[in-house]
Specification:
heterodimer; A: 149 residues; mainly alpha; 60% helix; disordered C terminus; B: 142 residues; 6 helices
Amino acid sequence: MRNLVPGMFVGVIFGAGLALSDMVNPARVQAFLDVAGAWDPALMYVMGAALVPSAIAYLIRRGMRRPLLGDRFSIPESRTLDRQLLVGAAMFGVGWGLVGFCPGPAVAGLVLGAWQPWLFVGAMLVGMALHRVFISNRAPAPASEGLSS
Amino acid sequence: MQTISPVFAVGGGLLIGTAAALLLLLTGRIAGVSGMVATATRMTVAGTPWSQATAFIVGLPIGTALIALLVRTPEVIVTSSVPLLIIAGLLVGFGTRLGNGCTSGHGVCGIARLSPRSLAATAIFMASAAATVFILRHVIGG
């Protein structure tokens, strides 16, 4: 219960934010990415607003020895820009741009009656499994793997 | 598609940021959806405990359903074909695991703590996504 309740509580708030801000709508996201077309600034407002409480929490955290319900903070410490990070981010961006879904909105949007999020999430899980089979099982885990974000 | 009121955009953003803030201060964890999905489906054992990640992932559509019932029902407008949806899903799944994060983990949480890895990742996925849309709409589709 110590894990379930905060996980669910936070997930519900996060999902509510994605729906209220229309980020669950891929057309809204693609319109933000379409800088040469009819550009829609909504995603910029969403990210800008999201950064405020998030940044405040990281400042508060500096004065805390441990989280309120846990033993320690698990925040990635690595500062190395390795090739996996750069290539992975570039691949993710291409997929994100192609249809306008990223993981959070696609999962949150599963309940909105459209079939496309289901297909996308299915393919995304296959992509994650392929990474597991071809990358993480082959090489020793990189330093950053221990604390995935 | 109508423009969305900035009140909804900012309000939604504040909810997302509040969720990330609560997760950090309550449990000490990063609110990264791609990592949580991988943990919930047992594709990684690193990071968030399984039960917490799974509860978080289940919570996402519940939160969206609550907004749909109480405030506004968001449209899901998808113009992409089935093969494109599959290719995009594969790239997003593989890429977020390789790059250790997505819009939430790198974008919202990483930028908030000024992580150099997250700043670089966010700049790269924003640029490659915008370039993809440009090619899709103004080069191929133009």
